[in-house]
Amino acid sequence: MTAPSGFSAPADAPASAAPPFVEIVEVGPRDGLQNDPTLIDTGVKLEFIARLIDAGVRRLEAASFVNPKLVPAMADGDAVMAGVPRDRGVTYIGLALNERGLRRAIDAGCDEVNFVMVASEGFGKANQNATPEETADLLERIAVLAHDANIPLSATISVAFGDPFDGEVDPARVAALARRAAAAGVMEIALGDTIGVASPWDVRATVAAVQAAAPGPRLRLHFHNTRNTALANVYAAVEAGVRVIDASAGGIGGCPFAPRATGNVATEDVVYMLQRGGIGTGIDLERMIETARWLETVALRHPIASMVARAGGFPSSRR
Fold it and tell me: Quick check: is 67 in a domain?
């Protein structure tokens, strides 16, 4: 496969380093549904997951193990994990904010646990009742639980590009948290643009800072499209060497603790852009479009944000 026109690898990388493949982590079943006005039952969630797998998704956020009183849409995490297919070669990620959540995710049979750190105090107090340093302290204390269970542990640094209460976030602070996460033994660090304020230039600067501070763990990026910059940010991340991107079918999602934050970047929009540039994802674009339209018409029954789900691919992969 060839790189997209205009693609530039990192300055110190050979021309052959242009990525032939970018892994998409589908976050629709967790981040996509957690703040949706439509509460869907476990059976519909499992159908959603099955459709995503049929479209080629092989790594996805399946459930969140948080206080069900605060996030009622995620109250059935144990039931979801009990019902997911185990014979399709899929990695199921469970999200946790504390020791109780981490233990629940392990007991529920998650293949991987994602712990959430926070880059700014305002959002940290609203979301986890903790400062950035306290979330790093907690990760260091409880990481041993995942390591003892032989379950891969990743860490998402939320509001890595901006906080709805405190404003700008210094890349140096994100890098310092990433360094601590790496020391705690995480295999992957995700940078979350939780409120959708990042620009491609912000992405470039923060990714560079994190790569320098924590070169060991794999790096993943998570963008919300609140200000219509998510696809540009995905491109900037790939240019900077990132090979794992979060996305949500239909562009659904949003954070209950982030005022006016809208959905994630749409999986089918990301797949289309990368596909047109010759970058593989392993995802069938037409099946993903069908899944997004199913969300809009059957499961959620309200409009979704995806552009490609409306327009379709070009040229169509099914003639």
Answer: yes
Number of domains in the chain: 1
The one-letter amino acid at 219: L
For residues 269-282, give the mean pLDDT.
Answer: 96
Beta-strand runs (E) in the chain: 23-26, 59-65, 91-96, 112-118, 153-158, 188-193, 218-223, 244-247
Q: Are strands 112-118 and 153-158 parallel, antiparallel or unpaired?
A: parallel
Catalytic annotation, residues: 255
- Domain hosting residue 206, numbered range: 15-311
Say what the pTM is.
Answer: 0.92
pLDDT tens-digit map of 25-65: 999 999 999 989 899 999 999 999 999 999 999 999 999 99
Residue 70: the pLDDT is 87
DSSP H helices in the chain: 42-54, 77-83, 99-107, 121-127, 132-148, 171-183, 200-213, 230-239, 267-276, 285-294, 308-311
Please give the helix or strand (H or E) that residue 201 lies within, else none: helix 200-213
Whichever domain contains 39, its CATH number is: 3.20.20.70
